[in-house]
Every structure is written in structure tokens, then in C-alpha cells.
Design brief:
10 helices, 7-stranded mixed sheet, single chain, elongated
Amino acid sequence: MKHIARKRFGQHFLTDRLIIEGIVEAIAPLPGQPMVEIGPGLAALTKPLVERLGHLTVIELDRDLARQLRSHPQLTVVESDVLRVDFRQLAEQVRLAAPETASVGSHKLRVVGNLPYNISTPILFHLLDAVEVIEDQHFMLQKEVIDRMVAAPSTSDYGRLSVMLQWRYAMENVLYVPPQSFDPPPRVDSAIVRMVPHAEPAALDVKLLSELVRVAFSQRRKLLRHTLGQWLEQHAFAGEFDVKRRAEEVPVAEYLALTQQVQADAARLEKTGIL
């Protein structure tokens, strides 16, 4: 029986063989590498991946698809909402399940998948919490989202998503995927993004960075003195920061440095008993 795509799961199944081959080449899987695929669907990408890997763990929410996938002896199926999966725990389980071969190299987890476009951003932030156990990520996403992820400062696509992800990953758009590559075709263009965690990211409070960047971009047409400037005053910021700019004009490195300064000021004030 043919599986009917379910709108509530945001299902669009990849069918273009050339695109599938291009994605596999971009991922470049090696035998024995611990890998997890999110949303395998009808296994269009799953089959060529597991052929190269020897074993693959997949996360599938659709119970009918999960049941079909369990029939494959080289697959471990996690039937769950990906947002409920503990990737730190899963990384250890996948590492133990993967065959030991000379080509493994790193024991960190490689994560791939065609992410449901309706919850792609929450999934990216969920994985950010487990980035220390991840080797790299290759995802199919709405092209518009990837444009925002990799955007440079002083562009219309540059925003909170750009800053939060570029703090932790080196990213690139590696492949364009047109709507006709899917069944049913989505109403948007898609692309493949490669995300490689930085080896030595800036050490900071991620919640503080998130709040700072959210405030900065809350009114992106206005100068930062109307938004972030007031926020900095409320946090007793003692350093220097040019607020006569718009949020999109501030490079990622400056947001990171500012977060570290605010964090240091707060620690100092708390130590002296002022806060």
C-alpha cells in the first residue's frame, strides 16, 4: 500500500535520484560512523546511507513508517517526536551500536535529515543543546531558512537565527533542491545545509546571548539605542558598545563579546553585593 503524505507531520518525500546522490556525496558517510537520520520517511536517503555505513539509527514519528523501517535489519528505529529525543543519550547508544571499523575516526554523532519545515527552527535549537556530542549536521530545509542561517551582517536575511547558529557552527549552503524533487512538491524551494561545530566556540551563557540577540532584533528597523541600549542600562553594563547602529549591522563576534562583557559585569556586581 502506498503511504499517503500526512500534512500534520509536514511530509514531503524526496524522489529525485540525482538529488539523493548529491546529498549522499555531500554527507560522505564512511563505514561504521555513528549516524542518526531525522525523518527518514520512505527511506529514499536512508537506503544509500546505510549501504555505506553498515548501520543507521533513524528517528521517525509516523508509526506506519516506523513499522516499515523496522523490517530493515541494519536500522535502529526510534519512534518519537525528535524534540523529545535526548541526543546526548542517543549519541552514546548509537556509538555502541555502530560497528567498530578502522574508518570511524570520531565517536561523535553525525546527524542528517529532511527536517519538517514547520518545526525546523525548534529542531535546530534542540540540537544546539547537544552540540558537544555532534560531529556535523547535514539537513534539508526551506531555502529561505538556510539563507537566514548563513547570512552575513548588513543583509536583510541576517538576524537572530544567524547569530545564534554562527556562534556555534561553521555553515554553508551546499545544494539547491527544487520543489519537483519531492512528492508531493512543497510550495517552497529547499536546500541542503552543512553545519560543523566550531572546535573552540566563545564561552558564554547561551541563555544570556539568546535574550540579548532577541532584544537587539526585536525592532530591527530602529537604532539599537531604542532596544539593546535600554537593555544594557538595565543590566548595569559598564563597557562600551556602539548603539547608533541597527541590529543587522553588528557582526556575530561583537554580539558574543558583548554577551561575555555583560556576563562578567553581572558576576562582578554580584560578588560585591550590588546585585
